[in-house]
């Protein structure tokens, strides 16, 4: 199950748009959340959100998170808001990303009858790929990534595209984006993959 944000939308939007706050959500302060979630996922049969929360806190400790919380409070936010936001940004959003990856993985397996694996941490960091098959890779992103347009996001998009090109050069496999919005996955990527596979089978890719 996804974890929905309980903060007021205006508060959440204000926090997300604060550049000074955002810099404290780098791995220096909150760790590599997705790497830790992968480590947790691979250590259990059935991942559970509460278990993941405890796993993360045990790995990171609370001192750095308290530091980030205090930074937010210095901006005028109440302690309960700051504490909730820190956990949501680190634990909950990462968990939601895994839920979406799992949904995309099942869609691919059901639609194309192929084996799909979660990319390991090294592959994710080097190529920005979340899921792998023998024929192509997938990066899973929220709809806000597709429609967003700001200097920081555009810079990230450029980095991701370069990483995908490197992946294609070194593995011979193209990378496709799969987008989600809340619980729903936009399945239009299946059409793109079908065209790619048809061209590949005809020797045109």
Structure write-up:
- The chain has eleven helices and five strands; from the N terminus they run H-H-H-H-H-H-H-E-H-E-E-H-H-E-E-H.
- A five-stranded mixed β-sheet has the order 1-2-3-4-5.
- By secondary structure, it is an alpha+beta fold.
- Strand 2 (131-132) and strand 3 (136-142) form a beta hairpin.
- Helices cover 63% and strands 11% of the residues.
- The chain is globular, with a radius of gyration of 18 Å.
- Helix 4 crosses helix 5 (49-60) and helix 6 crosses helix 7.
List low-pLDDT spans. none
What is the typical, i.e. mean, pLDDT?
Answer: 93
Using only C-alpha atoms, the radius of gyration works out to: 18 Å
Task: Find the structural class using helix and strand composition.
Answer: alpha+beta
According to DSSP, the number of beta strands is 5
Q: Distance between termini? A: 38 Å
**Strands side by side in the biggest sheet:** 1-2-3-4-5
Q: Tell me the fraction of residues in β-strands, as a range.
A: 5-15%
**Helix content bin:** 55-70%
Note the overall shape. globular
- Biggest sheet features: 5 strands, mixed
Give the number of helices. Answer: 11
H-E order = HHHHHHHEHEEHHEEH
Question: Could you provide a short overview of the structure?
Answer:
Helix content is 63%, strand content 11%.
